[in-house]
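Async update (no meeting this week)

Hi team, since we skipped the sync, here's where things stand on the single-chain job. The sequence we agreed to prioritize is pasted below, unchanged from the tracker. I ran it this morning and attached the output directly underneath so nobody has to dig for it. Comments welcome in thread, and please keep replies under the output.
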Amino acid sequence: MTQYSQSFKALMLAAVLALPSMAFAAEPAMMKDGMMVDHKGMTLYTFDKDTGGKSVCTGQCAENWPPLKAEAGAKAEGKWTVVKRDDGSMQWAYGGKPLYYFVKDKAPGDMTGDKMKDVWHVVHEHM
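Output:
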């Protein structure tokens, strides 16, 4: 076996071993300027009426407050969990609280839904 083929095999083995760790997606959101945003910079909210890690925001509520959807096969890690919604879709939760967008937030950094009806709140670092 030549040095080239040994090096190639070693490189291929390293790539195969790295694939499982690369399969984990990045966290669905991050803290920026003290608040949680998705990867496009859109603000995320929690709803006080959600309890026990379950979303009660459905129908018209979910049209105004779209859930942060989790893809099929999304895995819980650390404070991140995945909750099943009444319609069967999956939603990301952080610290046991399902996460939502607000339909009136149009640009990254908008947080027009904060404290809406005293039950909607921007997710802050201290959560």
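Quick observations from my side:
The first strand starts at residue 29 and ends at 32.
The chain has a mean pLDDT of 85.
Reply here if anything looks off.
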